[in-house]
Amino acid sequence: MTWNYRVVHRVEGGEDVYAIHEAYYDNDTPTNITEDSVSPQGVTLNELERDFEAYQKALTQPVLEYESFDSDSTFFTQKTQKEKHQHKKS
User: How buried is residue 10: exposed, middle or buried, by Cβ count under 10 Å (0-12/13-18/19+)?
Assistant: First the structure.
């Protein structure tokens, strides 16, 4: 399983919020994201700089929708088409 940082959109209190999360992939498809957003860090300034570069790369990728993932595990998992359809009805 591979991962990278991705921008994730969610609505909180009626407001659009964009944040960076870790995204995990299966066959180049994002299947899981971290529940909470993440922040850049490193044990050296060079590591912090590399982390910032990875965050900047996330800004060049398509935005993921928070509601497309289900919170049934440690990481939010991608909802199936059936689950997405049922969510829209409720």
Answer: middle
pTM: 0.78
What is the largest distance, in Å, between two alpha-carbon atoms of the chain?
49
51 contacts: CB under 8 Å, gap ≥ 6:
40, 41, 42
Amino acid at position 66, single letter: Y
Provide the 10 A C-beta neighbour count for residue 50. 13
Tokens describing residue 37 = 């957003």
Torsions phi, psi of 70, nearest 5?
-105, 140
Distant-in-sequence, close-in-space partners of 31: CB < 8 Å, separation ≥ 6:
24, 25, 77, 78
- Count of other CB atoms within 10 angstroms of residue 76: 24
Per residue in 33-89, pLDDT (tens digit) is 998 999 999 999 999 999 999 999 999 999 999 998 887 655 666 655 444 434 444
